[in-house]
Design goal:
alpha+beta
C-alpha cells in the first residue's frame, strides 16, 4: 500500500467517524426530545392515579388498571431512553490514574446485601500489587456493576457463587468475573454484545453493549466464555498506562 492509499484510508476513516458522531448527536437530541413529552404523560398519569386512588365502582377500577399499565410502559420507555443515552455517550471518557481493585471492591460492597438475600457467595481475589491504570472511574464502575448484576441474574434464586479475580498481564491488568449460573447457549453468546439484543422479558438490551463500549473507550477489551448450565466468564483487559514523564511525576 502506498502513502497515497494510506492517506485515502485515513480520510475515509475520519469521514466515517464524523458521520458516526453526527448520528450520535442527532440520536441523543431525539432521545431528549422524547423524554420531555414522556415526562408530561407520566405526570398526568400520576395525577389521574391520585384522582382514582379511591375507586368507587367497577368502571373506575378498570380505568385505574389501564392507567397503571400506561405508567409501567412509560417507566420502561424512560429506562430505555436513559440506557440509550448512556450507550451513545460512553465514548466520552475522562481518563485519570486509578485502581481497578478499588472499583471492583466498590461494586462488590454495593451488591453484598442483594447477594446475601439470594444466598449468593461472593469470592474476591484481588491482586494487592495490581498496577494503576487510566480510567474514568464513574463509567468503569457502572460497567463493572452491570456485569456483576448480570451474574446475579444468571444465578436466579438458587444461590451459587461469583468469583472476581484481578491479575497482571504481559501488557497491563485484567479482571475475570466468573459465575456458576445458568450460562448461555451458542446463539446468545454470538449476539450478547449487540445493541437491543436481550433474553430478559423487560430488558433493554443495552447493558452489555454499553459495558463493552466503556471498556474499549479505556483502550481495553472484553471477552466472554459460557456454557449452558455451567456458568459464564467475562474477562476484561486494560493496557498499562505510559510511564509518567519527569514533569508529570507527583512530588
Amino acid at each position: 500500500m502506498t502513502d497515497l492509499d494510506d492517506h485515502k484510508s485515513d480520510e475515509e476513516n475520519q469521514r466515517l467517524y464524523d458521520q458516526f458522531l453526527e448520528i450520535s448527536e442527532l440520536a441523543g437530541s431525539l432521545a431528549h426530545e422524547i423524554k420531555n413529552p414522556l415526562s408530561v404523560i407520566r405526570m398526568n398519569m400520576d395525577l389521574l392515579t391520585e384522582d382514582l386512588g379511591k375507586a368507587k365502582n367497577q368502571r373506575e377500577r378498570r380505568c385505574l388498571t389501564k392507567i397503571e399499565i400506561v405508567q409501567a410502559q412509560c417507566l420502561r420507555l424512560q429506562t430505555l431512553l436513559d440506557d440509550f443515552l448512556r450507550f451513545i455517550r460512553v465514548s466520552k471518557v475522562d481518563l485519570k490514574a486509578g485502581s481497578l481493585n478499588d472499583q471492583v471492591q466498590r461494586v462488590l460492597d454495593f451488591i453484598a446485601p442483594k447477594a446475601r438475600e439470594t444466598q449468593i457467595e461472593i469470592l474476591p481475589s484481588l491482586d494487592a500489587d495490581l498496577p494503576t491504570i487510566l480510567m474514568d472511574a464513574p463509567r468503569l464502575y457502572a460497567a463493572l456493576l452491570n456485569l456483576v448484576l448480570n451474574a446475579i441474574d444468571a444465578l436466579h434464586e438458587s444461590g451459587g457463587s461469583i468469583w472476581a479475580h484481578t491479575r497482571r498481564t504481559a501488557t497491563g491488568v485484567a479482571m475475570d468475573l466468573i459465575d456458576n449460573g445458568c450460562g448461555m447457549d451458542a446463539d446468545t453468546l454470538i449476539h450478547v454484545f449487540e445493541p437491543f439484543y436481550t433474553t430478559k422479558e423487560n430488558g433493554a438490551g443495552l447493558g452489555l453493549p454499553t459495558a463493552r463500549r466503556t471498556i474499549e473507550a479505556h483502550g481495553g477489551r472484553i471477552a466472554v466464555r459460557s456454557a449452558l448450565g455451567r456458568g459464564t466468564q467475562f474477562t476484561l483487559e486494560f493496557p498499562m498506562p505510559p510511564r509518567l514523564t519527569s514533569d508529570e511525576t507527583p512530588s
